[in-house]
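Subject — a protein and its fold

Tokens — whole-number codes for backbone shape
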Amino acid sequence: MTTQFDLDTRELAESYDRLSDAQFCFGKLLVDRLEIQTGQRVLDVGCGTGRLAEYVAQAVGPSGEVLGIDPLPFRIEIARKRARPGLSFEIGGSDDLGRFADRSWDVVCLNSVFHWIERKAEALREIHRILQPGGRLGIGTGDKDQPNPFHAIIKEAIASVMGQVPEGAQISPFLLSAEEVRELVLKAGFSALRVESTLHSDFVDRVDDLLDFFQASSFGNFLALVPEERQPAVTVRIREELEKLRTAHGIERRFQRLLVIGERKE
């Protein structure tokens, strides 16, 4: 499966900004592990609507600089509303890192984006190039060995309607295990300071908010490989299965996330 960036809309970008609290909270944990310092230059790759970059800007202070890049214009449009001196946003992605000079950043972070990157090894080599010696890489992503339980519900719903799951029909097409991510980071020249699996858990009251989040966080790729005429039936099945998970507190989102911190030694 090739990730499609042209499926995003202004409405999906606005939904993501509204519904991405879980990813934002996980991103703050990643920032904490990176130990970002006042005055540093930080590049946020796959910044989305800029919530985490805005948070990082508080950590680096007025003497630092934060740049968020994302390949989705509608998300950058929202992010730019958060811009201020020392915090800026540009359209771009992991394939566009050649625009940056060698050793030009202190920290590069990728929160909830690494599983969307197809050419991971190439991206990591470029990140190593643009980091200062002693600079840090931070990755927050899912874990292939401990998949999000909602993914199984979605695949089963597709199979029940279509008889099979179309090849490549998955929310996170390039998801890796903790060991696979660690190996890639090491091969790119980093020393691995931390590879940590953390449990995320929260509750969502409305099933429609979950469905909207699936669509918004995948920038339209959710169910993209399901024929349009079949999508309503698949959505009904997903909604039914999600409702079965409802508790007195709402529908629990419970899944493992990987935090990976690497350092460029020289």
Notes: The chain has a mean pLDDT of 93. The chain has one domain: 10-264. Residues 10-264 form a domain with the Rossmann fold fold (CATH 3.40.50.150). Residues 21-34 form the longest helix (14 residues).
